[in-house]
Amino acid sequence: MLERIQKANDIKELNPEELPALAQEIRQFLIEKISKTGGHLASNLGVVELTMAMHLVCTLPEDKIIWDVGHQSYTHKILTGRKDGFDDLRKYGGMSGFPKRKESACDAFDTGHSSTSISAGLGYVCARDLQNEDYSVISVIGDGSLTGGMAYEALNNASRLKKNFIIVLNDNHMSISENVGGMSDYLAKLRTADFYTDLKKGVTNMLHNVPVVGNPMIEHIRKTKSSLKQLIVPGMFFEDMGITYLGPIQGHNIPMLVRAFNEAKKIEGPVLLHVLTQKGKGYEPAETQPDKFHGIGPFQIETGEPENPKKKDTYTDVFGKVLYDEAARNEKIVAITAAMADGTGLSKFRRKYPDRFFDVGIAEEHATTFAAGLAAGGMKPVFAVYSSFLQRAYDQLIHDVALQNLPVVFAVDRAGLVGNDGETHQGIFDLSYLSNIPNMVVMSPKHKWELADMVRFALSYDGPIAIRYPRGSASDVCQEFRSPVEYGKGEILYEERDIAIVFVGHMFEEALAVRKQLKEAGYSCSLVNARFVKPMDTVLLDRLAKTHKMIVTIEENVQSGGFGEHVTEYLSRTGADVRTLILALPDDYVEHGNIDVLRKETGLDVDSMTMRIQNAYKRLREK
Question: Which fold has domain 491-622?
Answer without folding.
Answer: Rossmann fold (3.40.50)
